[in-house]
Amino acid sequence: MRGGTLAAIAMAGVLTLAGCAKDSGNEGQAAGDGGGEGNCITAQAPPAPESSQRESEAQGDVDASDLRVGLAFDVGGRGDASFNDAAAAGVDRAKEEMGVGKTTESTAAGTESEDAKQQRLTQMANQGFDPIIAVGFAYAEALKAVAPRFPDTNFAIVDDNSVEAPNVTPLVFAEEQGSFLAGVAAVYKSKNCHIGFVGGVDTPLIEKFEAGYVQGAQAVSDNVEIERDYLTPAGDISGFNDPGKGNVVAKSQIDKGADVVYHAAGASGKGVFEAAKSGGAMAIGVDSDQYEQKTLSGVRDVIITSMLKRVDVAVYDYIRAVAQDDLGSLPERFDLSVDGVGYATSGGKIDDIVPVLEGYKKQIIDGKITVSDTVSG
């Protein structure tokens, strides 16, 4: 994790942008949004870019029919409406567009041992699956043990770059950048100038979501109040698959006055959405466009946006790179500049503030705002 120097630079960038508009009242605020009394937003929004569309690079057809892809899910697996589903979507797209020959999937249990993770990866490798994609940092130690035993097999791991092996490719993201925009959206849509964050497990990875969210909210408001809670401590990954606990914690934040709650809690997020619906609040999803998830159709009306962590894009691009024998073409980190993170507009609930979000997005891409990936205060 980057240290205090980067955090200081990050806040300096935020304060420089916000400071020039501290006396501007509600200039740049979307009409009817941002604090019921009109005093929540204290920074003028940066100008929106002339075009928010990133030109896509032309890509020719790729034949991946010789590949046999193994997908080792984290806890929750396919159907979690979040992180794992995003990885699955990347493989599904690769099958459809590149003709991947065969795939296999296996899901981690909430309390399984390192030996179980090693066995899962080993079994896939022994069966000839290549590449094998480990979904989540929880596979890091297992992959360190397994990858050297299969030097001719390609492995990738999502959300970890600690495995130093020539046949392992890290797929990591700038979650803090996407979460910064979620924080901006939360403040603009809050009526109480009071928002919340619910993390699944208190780990450095999930703290990146919290860090960006808090910085984004504070960049646009000196007055916003932010609730922050985690469902489980580090080492207890059940926080990613406990909707009941997500409901209880989110309800507590809503009872304290938070009217927009952002979760980074995997399948536990469904409980956050349910608490928002029953408590008359709004919510922000994570990883996938959760407004469009069929398993969340009953609570979609409270989902104003989702912070998109494009695990699907990273997995698809990785499979493509393996098929082309060109792993060097992958970015070192999937950030805003390559649309590796972003935000969803499904449902139209943030259409009025898209110019604001695009303005901040451009500031981050251009380096005028540096978003820290560590929590301060």
Question: From the structure provided, what is the oligomeric state, counting identical versus distinct chains?
Answer: single chain
Task: Please bin the fraction of helical residues.
Answer: 25-40%
| Number of separate helices | 10
Q: What name does CATH use for the topology of the largest domain?
A: Rossmann fold
Percent range for β-strand residues = 15-25%
Q: Tell me the count of domains.
A: 2
Organism: Prauserella muralis
Region (Disordered): 21-65, 94-115
Domain ABC transporter substrate-binding protein PnrA-like: 72-371
Membrane topology: Lipid-anchor
Present the secondary structure layout.
Layout: H1 4-19, E1 68-73, H2 83-98, E2 102-107, H3 114-126, E3 132-134, H4 140-146, E4 155-158, E5 168-171, H5 175-189, E6 194-201, H6 204-220, E7 225-232, H7 243-255, E8 260-264, H8 269-279, E9 282-287, E10 303-309, H9 311-323, E11 341-343, H10 354-365
Parallel strand pairs: 1-2, 1-3, 3-4, 4-5, 6-7, 6-8, 8-9, 9-10
Antiparallel strand pairs: 10-11
Helix pairs in contact: 1-6, 2-9, 3-4, 5-6, 5-10, 7-8
GO cellular component, one term: plasma membrane
Membrane topology: Lipid-anchor
Subcellular location: Cell membrane
